[in-house]
Design goal:
Mean pLDDT: 89
Number of helices: 9
Number of strands: 8
Strand order of the largest sheet: 3-4-8-5
Shape: globular
Number of domains: 1
Radius of gyration: 19 Å
Distance between the termini: 40 Å
Oligomer: single chain
Helix content: 25-40%
Length: about 280
């Protein structure tokens, strides 16, 4: 039987005001700072074209029964954290918002901009390096951790994944789904998500009951639907039409490598850079 983090013996510390702080709370703060500092230094260290804004960090209980709903909301074969790591107690998730210049570059033209395509490649590389660093740090403290690749972990027939970073990030309180099927965070929806499963006991982040999408809140938007070059949102979400434009962009930007991207439903929107419902 899986053990929830609240049942794990944890040490208690006191800050300079005499207030109790648990090891789990301290570790959560350390991880958030680690991610923020790593992303801030990355462009200079790696000489990337892409720039990112401050990451948004969240955590979830890896043994929470509500995670079983992923087998209905995503697909029956969707993995649970305990399938990835037998000692899993928490999900660590983060959103890396693109600098506004990246989203602005993708407003015009049928094809994704070169800046947007490059940001896709560079962000995937960043997520891989950051995940490896986080895992190294956790393992040095005696914990276990595993990560799922940022992309290309889907079934090429159904175009569905057994590990949805967006859904897991939503459980970690990072954002809420919008009509464009993207996660709308406090820094908008233009960016990418990374997730890690770990044995470290972390306090789950709160999940807001309010919508972040104007359409879901009061029907006052819906601009993203008109942005899709393939009209993939006209009758629900047609992932096959969506994939068509991704492959077209991959061919268009073949000089960059594998870039099956688009992003038109994420730019020039009220939710591109922020939570418009605030």
């Amino acid at each position: 039987m899986a053990v929830k983090w609240l049942k794990v013996p944890i040490r208690v510390y006191y800050n300079n005001r005499g207030m109790q702080r648990t090891e789990a709370e301290i570790m959560k703060k350390e991880l958030e700072k680690l991610i923020i500092d790593y992303v801030a230094a990355y462009p200079e260290n790696k000489k990337t074209q892409t720039r990112w804004k401050r990451p948004i960090f969240g955590t979830a209980d890896a043994t929470h029964p509500q995670l079983l709903t992923l087998k209905k909301s995503v697909r029956q074969s969707h993995a649970l954290p305990l399938d990835i790591l037998g000692s899993a107690q928490s999900i660590i998730a983060y959103f890396l918002p693109f600098d506004e210049s990246v989203a602005k570059s993708n407003r015009e033209s049928y094809y994704a901009s070169k800046e947007w395509a490059s940001a896709y490649i560079e962000t995937n590389t960043l997520i891989g390096a950051l995940n490896a660093y986080i895992i190294e740090v956790l393992e040095s403290k005696g914990y276990e951790a595993k990560a799922i690749p940022a992309t290309h972990n889907f079934d090429e027939v159904t175009l569905m994944s057994d590990w949805s970073h967006r859904h897991l990030a939503a459980f970690a309180g990072i954002g809420k789904f919008g009509l464009n099927n993207m996660l709308i965070t406090e820094s908008g929806c233009a960016g990418r998500i990374g997730t890690i499963v770990s044995s470290v006991p972390l306090e789950p982040s709160p999940i807001s009951a309010q919508e972040n999408c104007l359409y879901y809140r009061d029907g006052s938007c819906g601009i993203c639907i008109k942005k899709c070059p393939k009209e993939a949102f006209n009758e629900g979400y047609d992932r096959f039409k969506c994939y068509e434009i991704l492959l077209e962009n991959d061919s268009y930007h073949k000089d960059l490598g594998l870039v099956d991207v688009c992003g038109k439903c994420c730019v020039a929107l009220p939710c591109t850079y922020k939570n418009p419902c605030k």
